[in-house]
Write a structure and sequence with these properties.
It contains 1 helix and 10 strands. By secondary structure, the chain is mainly beta. It has 2 domains: 1-31, no CATH class; 54-130, RNA polymerase II/Efflux pump adaptor protein, barrel-sandwich hybrid domain (OB fold (Dihydrolipoamide Acetyltransferase, E2P), Beta Barrel). Strands 3-10-8-5 form a 4-stranded antiparallel sheet, with no helix packed on it. A 4-stranded antiparallel sheet has the order 7-6-4-9, with no helix packed on it. Residues 55-131 form the Lipoyl-binding domain.
Length: 134
C-alpha cells in the first residue's frame, strides 16, 4: 500500500462516522481510531492562550509519533521565539516506520509548540502556532 493510498484512507476515515478501522493483508496491518468523549487536560500542561488571531496553525498531516529533533542527541528543530521560513522542516512524524517531514507553510515566528516530543499525534492535530511575517 502506498503512502498516498494510506493518506486517502485516513481522509475517508476522518470524514466518516466510524470510530475504528482495521485492515490486515499478509504482512501489512493498519489501524485507525478516533478519540471519543471529552478530553480532560491538566491546566499546567496547556499552552498559553493565543492573543493574536492572525497566527497560523501547523497541523499534523498524518497519524504517528512526532519528533521535535532529528535525533535524541540533536537540538530541536524549532523553539518558541525562533524564526521559521516557509518550507522549512519544523518536526518529523514517524508513521509505519517511515519518517515524514512536516514543513512550515509560512514564514514567521514560532509562538507555541502544542505537542511534546515523541507524543502520538492524530490527523490534523495542531502542532505549532506561527505568527506570520507582515
Amino acid at each position: 500500500m502506498t503512502k498516498d493510498e494510506v493518506q486517502q484512507l485516513l481522509q475517508q476515515f476522518d470524514q466518516s462516522s466510524l470510530n475504528e478501522f482495521a485492515l490486515k493483508d499478509n504482512n501489512f496491518e493498519l489501524h485507525f481510531g478516533k478519540q471519543s468523549g471529552a478530553v480532560v487536560k491538566d491546566d499546567a500542561t496547556l499552552p498559553p492562550a493565543a492573543t493574536n488571531t492572525d497566527t497560523t496553525t501547523i497541523k499534523a498531516p498524518l497519524v504517528g509519533v512526532v519528533y521535535l529533533a532529528a535525533a535524541p542527541e540533536q537540538p530541536v528543530y524549532k523553539k518558541v521565539g525562533d524564526h521559521v521560513a516557509a518550507g522549512e522542516v519544523i518536526c518529523v512524524i514517524e508513521a509505519m516506520k517511515m519518517m515524514n517531514e512536516v514543513k512550515s507553510d509560512v514564514s514567521g515566528t514560532v509562538t507555541a509548540i502544542l505537542v511534546e516530543n515523541e507524543a502520538m499525534v492524530d490527523f490534523h492535530q495542531p502542532l505549532f502556532e506561527i505568527d506570520p511575517e507582515s
